[in-house]
Amino acid sequence: ARAHSPGNSSFPADFIWGASTAGHQVEGNDTASDTWFLENVEPTVFAEPAGDAANSFHLWPVDLDLCVAMGLNAYRFSVEWSRIEPEQGLFSQAMLDHYTRIVAGCHARGLRPIVTFNHFTSPRWFAALGGWTNPDAPGLFAGYCERVMHALGDGIDHALTFNEPNIFRLLDGILPPQVRAIERATLDRAGAVTGSAHFAAANVVRPEDEDAIEAGMLLGHQQARAAIKAIRSDLPVGVSLAIIDEQAMPGGEALRDEARRKLYGAWFASARHDDFVGVQNYERRVWGPDGRIEPPADAVRSQTGQEVFAPSLAGAVRYAHESTGVPIFVTEHGMSTTDDSIRAWLIPVALSHLHTAIADGVPVKGYCHWSLLDNFEWIFGYGPKFGLHTVDPVTFERRAKLSAVVYEGIARANAL
């Protein structure tokens, strides 16, 4: 790849600059969801419950204003299935109106609404039916997507059916056995309390359910895409995938290619029929002939111990486009750290490599940083800090970090 040229540092004229959030992680009190339930059973794999989160259910106008203050032109958020359909077949007009107001609020501020229809969380009743292992799941999800489209589909800029439906494959190699054991105990307890023979969620997963969940979500994506397109054929629809920049040292190619096949194969095959693929990248992995090669001793590390490797985003983007042939939308990229100076360093360096990929002909629609706010990071609770803004857990006051200022400079200039 060519070295980044400071003489031509502009991004394409219509480039999307955004920040990402997810309903359960910022809204608070998502009480009808499977995840809320799993957080509050005993035992639980969750470090703590989400509770009020960042109170974005009420403070979403403040969040949109933060995006405007950073010079962004997009906001990625998710609509919560469990709020819209808290019991099977019971659809809440009030909640559809709520999300319609957020879409309108985006347009009023010149922000493009990038909407995720399912960001890990599902209604508790859906999980109690076996979640994505239930053969009826794809149709149930498509029906919900149809309701959302009728309510607010006119205003959506880009639609994502799922967020990282391949995440449990990725976590297979990361979560230690003791965590997997607590996950199983959490799901078993949830089943006992709800009277469900098979309580199944999408981001706390039993290994033996993985193939059925993947198959259900692949069908769910296809049926949801059809439902969305039936109402608005012009709306770009895709799915976001967790993509590690998989690299191989000599002799490591076979192991790298096997890891890729397992993590992305089925989803890339499906994405070839989509309008774009969402790339979510946080790290690289280097494969040698005997397995993974540890990062160098002097590597920059995230709060959770992963190597922070700035070129990994461009590597993941190039690979996703090569594998699917469709345009790319970076729907998440970032790092967890309590030292924001590392994030402030990462953003421009990663974007310079992305700029080079675009110059090399990779069609990239835009970039959304994860996350707008420090938020609830699933089983890890409120420990990992991914935000461009801090959030006071009592007053919910948001404060911009240095990284927000750095990102603002790039977004306003549409250039590095």
Explain the overall architecture.
This protein is of the alpha/beta class. Helix content is 42%, strand content 16%. The protein contains 14 helices and 13 strands. Strands 1-2-3-4-5-7-10-11 form an eight-stranded parallel β-barrel, surrounded by four helices. A three-stranded mixed beta sheet has the order 6-8-9. Strands 12-13 form a two-stranded antiparallel ribbon. Strand 8 and strand 9 form a beta hairpin. Helix 7 packs parallel to helix 10 and helix 12 runs parallel beside helix 13. The longest helix is centred in the middle third of the chain and has 22 residues. The radius of gyration is 20 Å and the shape is globular.
SSE series: EHHHEHHEHHEHHHEEHEEEHEHEEEH
User: What is the first-to-last residue Cα distance?
Assistant: 18 Å
Question: Uncertain regions: pLDDT < 50 for 5+ in a row?
Answer: 1-6
Major sheet strand order: 1-2-3-4-5-7-10-11
Alpha-beta content class: alpha/beta
By DSSP, the count of extended strands is 13
Overall shape: it is globular
The whole-angstrom Rg is 20 Å
Provide mean pLDDT, rounded: 97
SS field, number of helical segments: 14
Let me know the largest β-sheet: 8 strands, parallel, barrel
Strand content: 15-25%
| Helix-residue proportion | 40-55%
